[in-house]
Amino acid sequence: MSSIRLLLNPTRTAKQGVQVNIGKFSDEYIQMTTTLTCHADDMAAIGVSDGDSVRVRTEHGEAQFTCVQGKVPEGMVFVPYGPPTCKLMGGDTDGTGMPTSKGWEVDVEPVQ
Known about the structure:
Blueprint: E1 4-11, H1 14-22, H2 27-33, E2 35-38, H3 40-46, E3 53-57, E4 62-69, E5 76-80, H4 83-86, E6 104-110
Parallel strand pairs: 1-5, 2-4
Antiparallel strand pairs: 1-6, 2-5, 3-4, 3-6
């Protein structure tokens, strides 16, 4: 088990948009925003199986996610925006008013 560097691309999902009407504190919304999708080969390199917990670190913070195998390119991970991804963002907005939130290099490791 080890930490590997991957490219994180958080985004909003259509299902997430529907859930906003139900509430961001619903169990389904929380589960959605704490699930990280990863390529099978990257999961093997990290040393985790489907459903295991991983810690994602940036220079700004860290967050814990449930890791699931999915259709993402090798070397990249996906997670819907939510409170955990906010812990990973810095404050720089490049003048846009929104923190930079795409293409972060992150360290991903198993949670012991």
